[in-house]
Amino acid sequence: MHALLVAANPDSRSLTHHVLGRLEAALQPVSVEIADLAEERFDPRFTPADRRAYHDGGNYPADVMAEHRRLERATDLVLVFPVYWWSMPALLKGWIDRVFVNGWAFEHSSASGLQPKLQGLTTHLLPIAGADSGAYERHGYESALRTQIEHGIIDYCGSRRGSTAFIYESDQLTADTTARHVDRAVRTISEAIHAGLRE
User: Fold this and answer.
1) Beta-bridge mates of residue 32
2) Engineered SS bond to 157: which of 31, 118, 165, 178, CB 3.0-4.6 Å?
3) Strand 113-116 versus strand 106-109 pairing type
4) First-last CA distance in the chain
5) Which pLDDT value is given to residue 199?
6) How far, in whole angstroms, is CA 26 from its chain's centroid?
7) How confident is the model at residue 5, as a pLDDT?
8) Tens digit of pLDDT for each residue in 52-91?
9) Alpha-carbon torsion angle 156, 21, 39, 153, nearest 10
């Protein structure tokens, strides 16, 4: 078992990073690697080189190939991110745009159709939301975010769906309440990954 935790928040003192540290500790004895996209200065821009690689299904830029190697070592991927405009931050979306590409995450052709390639990976989501759960339910935000990521990305690439654990009201809660919400989310994800050890 090897978990890759991917975080996208430019503030190293953020709740995102606090959750990341808590999750890393909770996952012991599972091997854990952290990809802090902001600290690593990952370039999220989809360039002409990325476009050519996407169409060719190969000849990927060096930084993309490095991310492929990290993901190929992982049995579990956990995306830890603040919700921006009811979606993931541009940095994380750019990472997915550039890394989950044709020829590696899936293959698509007019002759054979879609062939997902990430069946060996389980993907978990840990979104950190500013609004309360009632707002997400009333307006369908959680459903929309889940559809976008779980169906549109995870299912499309053939990865198994893991657990999704939202932390709500991240800007409004007291320290004690935030701690309880973090505990619950970390426990949900870590228990799902530890369950894989017993299978």
Assistant:
1) 3
2) 118
3) antiparallel
4) 11
5) 62
6) 18
7) 98
8) 998 888 899 999 999 999 999 999 999 999 999 989 999 9
9) 10
